[in-house]
Amino acid sequence: MSTVLETPKGKGEATRERILEIAEAAVLAKGFGATSIEEVIAEAGLTKSGFFYHFKDKNALAREMVRRYVATNDRLFDEIFGRGQQLSDDPLQAFLISLKLLAETMADLPNGHPGCLIASICYQERLFDREIRDLTAQSVRDWNARFRTILDGIAAVHPPREPVDLDDVADMLSCIVDGAIIMSKTLNDPGRLERQVMLFRSLVKLMFAPN
Is CATH 1.10.357.10 the right assignment for the domain spanning 66-207? Predict the structure, then answer.
């Protein structure tokens, strides 16, 4: 996978990014309710005024965490699925290549996937304001729409062997990834995420294989 060259961040932007990084790790480890602003401030080596310069309250921090998480995933999907399209003109083969790249990316995480911020927010949705809940819902809809567009392109060239709802198939990838993250963490088996993505790949291959 290619390396993206990033413009060096200014001090303020770097501090903001550091706060978001610390907060996300804490939320994924123990939940939003158990993560305090004080511990984020201490970990980041800031004063309270320094923190509140960037985020007016905890919900503002959560909103930016969601935006950052979604943007990071969008960039990952753009790179992985774009790479698949570069390697094959056939939409099915391009998607199969992309799923293999996605599985390899998951396997390369040294300690397994840290968790899904969207899922963490859903489990504790009463702690968040409507804007954050709407952001998380829209991110899921956008990811499902992304995969549905890919599946539509495949079905136009390779009609499914059996009648299937492509919306449900598109949803399945997110369900598999989030479910595999939970299972891999619960059973202390990081490899389960890679295997589940590859199983979905096999299912897609069979679903659109010529009769």
Answer: yes
Of all residues in the chain, what percent are helix, strand and coil, respectively (each to 5)?
A: 75, 0, 25
Please tell me whether the overall predicted TM-score, pTM, comes out greater than 0.90 for this model.
no
Per-position b or e across 13-26, b if 16+ CB within 10 A of its CB: eebbebbbebbbeb
46-82 pLDDT, tens digit per residue, is 989 999 999 998 889 999 999 999 999 999 999 999 9
Dist. CA 103–CA 85, nearest whole Å? 16
What are the distances in angstroms from CA 196 to CA 10, 107, 178?
Answer: 40, 11, 10
31: left (phi over 0), alpha (psi -120 to 50) or beta: left
Pick from 96, 108, 76: which is nearest to 198 by CA? 96
Which residue ranges make up each domain of the chain? 11-56, 66-207
